[in-house]
Amino acid sequence: MSRRGRRVAALLLLVFLVVPILEIYVLIQVGQVIGPWWTILLLVLDSILGTWLIKREGRRAWEALRERIETGRMPHRELADGALIVLGGALMLSPGFVTDAFGILLILPFTRPLFRRLLTSYAVSRVSIRAYPGAGGPGNATRPGPDVVQGEVVEED
Questions:
Q1: What is the model's pLDDT at position 152?
Q2: First to last CA, the chain
Q3: pLDDT per residue over 36-71, tens digit each?
Q4: Rounded distance, CA 25 to CA 51, Å?
Q5: b/e string for 9-29 if b means 16 or more Cβ within 10 A?
Q6: pTM of the predicted protein model
Q7: Extended strands (E) in the chain
């Protein structure tokens, strides 16, 4: 198995086995401390808070993205924020305190920059750009450019 295949297998094991077991454990512990009905109420309130945060921060991210595009600037930060808000929202959909806590951290505007930096560093480490001198632009980045033609620059007055 390749290195990447082992990473994917470990991630799938974590997501589909460890996280649900952890969620059940935390739910049982919270239920034993505050009672089952209060635990259910806390989960419902947590979902309501998450829904409100997703709506509020999603709207802000969308407006920032539109403004950035309208001014002709690259919306890299806004796109990362949008992706983090969507991921946080997906985590908020699953029942449980652990995924909800992580989802809220991805959505909150004062914790999102940390996760944006992590996302950016991961994306940069995964991207490989090959550029050949004289390749003629991004469409020809996989092959060398045309032959070099010797010439002389003449300035006219």
A1: 78
A2: 67
A3: 999 999 999 998 988 899 999 999 999 999 999 999
A4: 24
A5: eeeeeeeeeebeeebeebbee
A6: 0.71
A7: none
Mean pLDDT of 21-35: 95
Residue whose structure tokens are 């989960």:
43
| Encoded amino acid at 60, one letter | R
Nearest CA to 97 out of 44, 133, 35 is that of 44
Minimal CA–CA distance to 30: which of 100, 105, 103, 113? 100
pLDDT tens profile 104-125 = 999 999 999 999 999 888 887 7
Structure-block tokens of residue 96: 């449980």
Rounded to 5°, the CA angle 104-108-110 comes to 140
Contacts of 150 (CB under 8 A, 6+ apart): none
* One-letter amino acid for residue 133 of the chain: P
